[in-house]
Amino acid sequence: MRGFLLGVLITLVVLIGAPFLFLKLGYLDIRAAQPINGVEHSLAEMAMDSSVDRSAPHTENPIQPTDDNLMTGAMLYEKNCSLCHGSVADKGHVSPMGQAFYPHVPQIIRRIPGDEDWHLFYVTKYGIRATGMPAWEKTMKDDDLWRIITFIKHSDKLSPTVQEMWQTFGTPSGIAPSSSANPAPKSK
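Below the sequence we write its predicted structure tokens.
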């Protein structure tokens, strides 16, 4: 019995000590420019999805995809999100800033997330630790966050009115004009 307990104790010391030494001796590559490996990506994605599923209220999106809501969502997206997540005005645009993060920031207009609206709302409102995704809960109202989510989820099927507004307002560089209240046409 004594040998068994000693074996359990040694196993625990190794399981806790080995990762600690790995980190303490500097073997963890912390450079953001490194490609993310498949195992790390899968584990991080699983942890995020499980945490959101456990913590987020499964609420319905209160914002309807009307032209006004989609226009407002587009302007809010461009002002607050496009620098990292890519510009909507040019769907081929990939944000260089988004590629500088580890892991790389999803280019959500090029590939619209399949997650439920409540999932996207929770991640946007509370952020994601250790990724650079900020928590917007103290800087944006819930209705504005919902408008951004509504816009993202409908960005591939905008009405001609919203599409025209967006082409006028949006910029391929992903940087919005200084005033979102009076969008100015792009200069030629």
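Confidence is low (pLDDT under 50) at residues 173-188.
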